[in-house]
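Bit of a strange request maybe. I'm writing a small parser for structure token strings and I need a real example to test against, not something I typed by hand. Could someone generate the tokens for this chain?
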Amino acid sequence: MPRQTLVVPGLLALASALAAEDAAPPSVTPPTTQPVETLVVEGAAEDAFAVGHRGSAAKFDLPEQQEPQARTTLPRELLDVRGAWTLREALRSAPGVTMAAGEGGRTGDSLSIRGFAANSDLYLDGLKDNGQYFRDTFATDRVEVLRGAAGVLFGRGSTGGVVNTVTRKPTDQWTGDAALTAGAYDLQRVTAGIGGPLVDDTLGARLDAVAQDSGSFRDEQHLQRFGIAPGVSWAAGERTTILLQGLHQQDDGTMDYGVPMYAGRPADVPVETYYGFKDDSFQSYDVNQATLTIEHQLDSGLTLRNATRYGDYQRSYRTETLGAVNYITNTVSRAQALRDNVQRNLINQSEAAWKGQVGGREGSLLLGLELSREHYEYRSKNSTGVTGVAVFDPQSADSVGAGRADSLDGTLDARNETTAQTVAGYALGSLDLVPTLKAVLGLRVDCFSADYSSGPTVSPVVTEFSRSDTMVSPRTGLVWTPVPELSTYASWSRAFNPSAETYSLSTATSDLEPEQTDNYEIGAKATLLDEALTLGAAVFRLDKSKARTVDPTNTALQVLDGQQRTDGIELEAAGTIGRWSVQAGVAFMDAEVLASNNTTTTWDGVTVQVEGKRPINAPRSSGSLWTSYDLGQGFVIGTGFYAVSSRFTDQANSTVVPGYIRFDATLGWQGETWSAQLNLQNLADTVHYETGSARSAYAGTPLTGQLTLGARF
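Reply from user aminoacidic:
Good idea to test on real output. This should exercise your parser:
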């Protein structure tokens, strides 16, 4: 039987078993053990509709203070007060995370964690959400950033860590909110959310929605977005909860690659300067997801959980990329292509979680089975006759003209198709060795296979590659809690990156085993002032010891002789003390390619070795602060900053985007029903560049602001 066909029967069998058990209520008193949960946001109590696991990044019942790994939680309240409507904007408050350009032709949310690319390490309620789109936070309850190799929790990838978004869910009390925002660059945005019980403590529902129409500080840019996230929760008996959720997000906008790199730096031009054909560029995203989660509590502290997600990610776009600069004529070359890709994921995850006593000592155990099938199709056709344009005065025609790629019919320049399948089993556990010392262990085994084909394009030839890997991802850790307010830990974990991780195989990579990365970390977590303030510190080494590099005996192949390392320190603080609230974090990283056979060229054509260079998008330092103060009478004032040092954007370390600091502020008023909030970003109007590549850089927003009027009911 194909692996993907195991998903639905497994889910139906579990549902039938749970329904049968609930039909005959047990004679014993239901257990009082808490559901499998690692974080409860203050003010959000458990209720009849809550699914205990709630999609947490840590997966099993261990207090956040005793997790042997650094984690940052960004609650909904912080996102609202900062006006962080996108995942990219929210992640400014997480140390060790930096935004990246779309390496490898990827679009949508691209980022790095601890100096390693994390483009496919995005999750939604604990299930993989690796489609290429820009995530809005309209239905977000909180964002969790788990740093360090997390293969034991999430499988392939997760080298520097993962980002997990936890959605808003039905509750047993009716709540509603709506907001209307208007701002600079023709911003118009409406959000609304409502949820509560439909039938007493049995049936609950929630619906969140967003609509946005906006321009940009960049010329020729616009965005139209619509999103809706419905959810229904059914308390099917005293111990079983069934949650059905959906997500639809549709974006229509303009593809933009920013300004060209000139002599290794972003060209000295106004940040709004556009280098594309204004009538030719577009990007469209259409994302649809459905997730069914069943959770059931048994006696003896045992909880069963099964989650199934179907995700459909579609994008169509016309790229207008920037190429090499001719320093004699001061022109930059351009390329244009019409592209389309479709990705469909089917994921099923079953878990059994237990918490109780082992020989008189506290212990917990989580056993899991994950089955998934991911199918990816990509097509591309290049336009012809694309001319260059002046770097400092880019006067351009509105369209390429006769050579424009208008459709994906006929001869293509690329046609790729990949089907990837995963069967994984994992076990996570903790045990109190003595009252103050806890051991945390875990092991995950992934059987990952991929079938890749390329063509037909110009000729009818089809190139095919297949690859199967078995990856074992362990984790060990010790947590010492001398007093309830302080925990220290030491841990080691491992993650793997198979060749087909992002759906591509070639002659050079199809025979390669996965890359291997180890994370060594010591840290401390403390709560002060009756748990009003939390502090965290981590010292880590992230070591990729089997990195892909060119084979010195055959440059058409690759070998696993490379090595990349990041040593770092992270510090953070979060909490509310009286009327004062704060969220702050800083990361210092020393990253280096320790071994590589690869060579590359600098912006001016000099061939150099990659070995000894700093990895792309790995700043030496980055940090953020957001602090707010309750002035009384419903008024709140807040301010903060985000800062990052310079980052190299090519392997030769010859192109760089400069470091910058951005200051923001807010002033808000909250009444019993109505509210108003003014947000200002980049108060100093600093010219800065958020991301970059070897050929181009994308500018950050200049001084801007928006006013939001809201209501709660």
